[in-house]
Amino acid sequence: MIVIVLTRDVVVLAQPPWGTRPNGFERSPVLAGQRAERSVPLLPDSNGTAPDATVADSMTGASDLPVGPMFAAEDGDVQPLSERLSLNTAPRELRLRDAIQLSLSKSDIVQTLDSGGVQIADVTRYDPRIQGARSDAANAAFDPRLSAAYLGSHVNEPPDAFFGPGLSLNTRRDEGDFIATLSKPWSTGATTSVGYLPPLGYLYFPYGTTDQFNPIYSSSLVFEAKQPLLRGAGTKVNLAPLRIAQLRAEQSLWEVKQATLAQVRSVEEAYWDLQAALVTLDAMEFVFPLVTEVVRIERYRAQSERATRADVARASIQSDQFQQQRLLARNSVVEKELRLRNLMGLEVVDGVRLVPVDLPTRESFTLDHASAVANAIENRPDLVRQRLGVRIRELEYDVARNGLRPQLDLRAIYRTSGVGQRLDDSLQQLSDFQYSTWTLGLTFSVPLGNRAAKANLRAEELQLVRDRALLRQATQNVSFRLMDLIRETETSFAQYELALRRVQNTQEWLRAARIRFANPPPAGGNQDWLLLALYDYQAALRQHIDATTDAGLLLARYNTLLARVEEAQGILLENRGIELTNDPCEAVQRHAEDLFANQPPVLQHATNRPSAPAPIEAAAPRAPSSHATRYSQPPADRQPIMQAGHSVWQEPTGDSASRSRTRPRNYSSVR
Length: 671
Fold this sequence. Notes:
Outer membrane efflux proteins (OEP); 2 domains; 3-stranded antiparallel β-sheet; disordered C terminus
């Protein structure tokens, strides 16, 4: 197993000791489900030891053919492989769960496999925080507002400036004005305010006496309230911006969950692809010594004049072709490992090579399409996000419909004032409320024709109808997509079973062909037997490699499709024991009645316009099915590990057989 030590900024892979890996397998452990050593006896080795006398005596009838110099080649012409491509680095066993855990904990940037390469997702784990901050900003719309000002003035006006001609004295004074207002908007659309608003100018006579109306200080306290009665009235309209901001924050959480689903599925896909590449390479490594042994025997026969140079060239061609495929297989292993390293957030080179050790699922599962669609409607992030988008459109439609109404406001103003030679005298007079003024009335305004409001309502209506149609079509597309995935899964498993049968048959063919090639008939028999045996042996080698490669690829494809089926239902994270902090599923289920309590809007302003359609059935959350509820609960024998916005449920240590079962049994029946 692999030991993962998590620190704050670094993930250290601590490698426990293990034994040496076997030289080869008769069947790949991925295909057979267990590790079995090869039982096929090797041909005579290539250290110079000649075949036995029986084989040597049968090599007769050789002839030499000239070979042009342009085709001459030496054995040392092949360039040596680099350390990376030769796979000489130390192996490091890697479990699928550890790969997923590292991928989720190493970076806040989501990466997925797209078009064969690693791509950065448009959504990051910072986006919900950004939308949450914007939601908090929208909530500040009803916060009280305090405004205050102080203005100091020095007045020096020429004669005859005060009241026009008649006062020949110039006006000189120092004036200080202080105003303050505290206002508060309410969810009903009302606005209330209280302010200290003394008049900034008053009747002043230059050089007036104290018994004249010549105050030094004036004060005024004003209470004002305004309540819309038609446009902008009611909590439904005024709270719509807040609810829209909250719904957009919920959408962002669902987008992150969708990207995380794709990330986990991508890690699994890269994991199984690397394992399939290693299976192909194991088949190449198993066959390549046998192919080179055929070349050695043909060269020995040519030296004994029992084979032509064409026979040697034919065997060499087969060997070179196998070596080319072997290089491609090594290159594929390195490519798949680099993809997995990128998804896991590891370094490009760290002195080890990753070797997947978890056994893939080799059992067939039958998935019920109806239950899968129900799970997808309930848990699939893109569908829930679109349902939230429809709810946003409904709120915007309500606001636009309210905009058709005229502006009719009820206004009330109450003012109390005070004046005096001293500030305290003025405030005392103000506090006595002896000199008060009040105003009560209505204000009305409406645009003639109201074309802008009608156009806005029409636009919001069409957007609502469009989003509902898109949601219906998206739900239908998910149903077809799940059916395609189920079909591909069943087809891949059926192909894998056939490929596995081919592997078993080619092993038997290869064993028999090798025995025929290594044990010639008695002298004096048919002289073409060795050539026929060679052809048969080479065909067996080729078929064995093809069958093993196909079986490995199909098994990886099958396990990837199982992950895609779970991703398409939106239950991949739950089935892997992964929980997101602030999981949007809980919030939506908690506020489902408020979020999706849709009322079909009916247009009143125009009879020739179609009303918005009634909410579709998929717009309301469905009660989770029994099997879906079971998957939402974490296993009882796992403990949560909080890291980078995730709770990863750690599996307990146990025997290797129980830890190798990474695929939860989330299907209706087993075939």
